[in-house]
Amino acid sequence: ETNLYAPLPPSRGSGFSNAYPLVGVIMGSDSDLPVMLPAARILDQFEIPYELTIVSAHRTPDRLVEYARSASPRGLRVIIAGAGGAAHLPGMVAAITALPVIGVPVKGSSLDGVDSLHSIVQMPRGIPVATVAINNGTNAGLLAVRILAAGNPLLIEAMDGYLKKLEAEVLGKVDKLVE
Ligand code: RP5
């Protein structure tokens, strides 16, 4: 039997799939991968197990339903879904699973990603998708960490450390400017 959730591409040591993933990182096409990889890298950084694969709302609708239905029973806690164009993927996943869904609008070639942004952010009443900025896989990863951190003091500490690092980076630049 083929494993629908086989990682893509194969593991390079630190990432792409773990035995017990907490976060599902999915995208409509392999062309979305460059935008979604930063989300995976954030999860690597916080040592959060995740899986990464392609689920297309339009081209693989049955796979979408099966993925979303099985997500919670399989132990996922958060889903990050990226898509471009008429980006139904995050909204459809959120319609099927009760897990929190983070949508990443992917910038396509014609409308600069505004089409994806509107498709994802303008979810009708009842089915929320937490939408990050266009092409901002990093923020999707960070939001997933924050959702998991709500019940995990160690992750809160790790996120505080991340914020302190950002602050130090900016303050370092301020010091350089006034030197
Ligand atoms: C969407 O269509 C995908 O999420 C992707 O952003 C876009 C283009 O897909 P490809 O034609 O590159 O496969 O479904």
From TrEMBL:
Domain of life (superkingdom): Eukaryota
UniProt record similarity statement: In the C-terminal section; belongs to the AIR carboxylase family. Class I subfamily.
Protein name: Phosphoribosylaminoimidazole carboxylase
Biological classification of the source: Eukaryota, Fungi, Dikarya, Basidiomycota, Agaricomycotina
